[in-house]
């Protein structure tokens, strides 16, 4: 049991490290809960500088979030582009390619909650 727990923690750390590698973006993991069964619920803050973007990517589960600061253009494949501002919330279906771009001349900050398959990386780049 201890070995599985340590392996899961190491895997999650690598997933955060890989996700945080995108240039110009700061991601701060806040917590991870192994729930529901087979999934991790991860809470994090993502910050994108003015003019920057998260880059097209997917998650192996749903993402829901809340815009803390600034404005962003949220591009979700198959949906019209949305412009969100501080106080707005959003959700992204599992496995759907999406991107978030800082809108205007200010940085944006979101609080994201991910409920993802714990055997897969938190995020994967998309073409």
UniProtKB/TrEMBL annotation:
Keywords carried by this UniProt record? Signal
Pfam families per the UniProt record, alphabetical = Cupin_2 (PF07883)
Per the database record, which ranges form the Cupin type-2 domain?
45-114
Q: Quick one: signal sequence residues?
A: 1-20
Classification via SUPFAM superfamilies = RmlC-like cupins
Query: What superkingdom does the record give?
Result: Bacteria
Q: Name it.
A: Cupin domain-containing protein
Annotated source species: Bradyrhizobium amphicarpaeae
